[in-house]
Amino acid sequence: MQANEEALALARSCTDEQWVRTVGGEGWTVGVVLHHIAEGHANTLRWLGDMASGRGVSDTADEIDRVNAAHAVQSESARQAETAELLLGNGPASRARCAA
């Protein structure tokens, strides 16, 4: 949960210039990376629900890569407040589900 708190603090404290700065790895902006983290919590919840129901995770690595690439494009315009709200909601929900 500490990582989510740090991501939330970063999302809230970035300047506009920092928010759109491209970072290494995928070549995404800081904002896209933080939004990706927030959305990742939602995926964790979905996967845990699937596993708990006995279905298992059906997403393939290729599907995850495609979804991630699409998400990067879609979240380019995500604002800091929206991303912070997602981190604030999805992070604790994911943690609670993992603890259950």
What are the salient characteristics of this protein?
100 residues; single chain; mainly alpha; 73% helix
Task: Describe the fold and architecture.
The protein has 100 residues and is mainly α. The protein contains 5 helices and no strands. Helix 1 packs antiparallel against helix 3 (30-52), helix 1 (2-13) runs antiparallel to helix 5 (80-99) and helix 3 runs parallel beside helix 5 (80-99). It is globular, with a radius of gyration of 14 Å. The two termini are 15 Å apart. The mean pLDDT is 87.
Mean pLDDT: 87
User: What is the helix content?
Assistant: over 70%
Number of strands: 0
Largest sheet: none
Succession of helices and strands = HHHHH
The best one-word shape is globular
Uncertain runs are none
For the termini, the CA-CA separation is: 15 Å
**CA radius of gyration:** 14 Å
Range of strand content: under 5%
**Number of helices, counting only DSSP H or I runs of 4 residues or more:** 5
Secondary-structure-based class equals mainly alpha
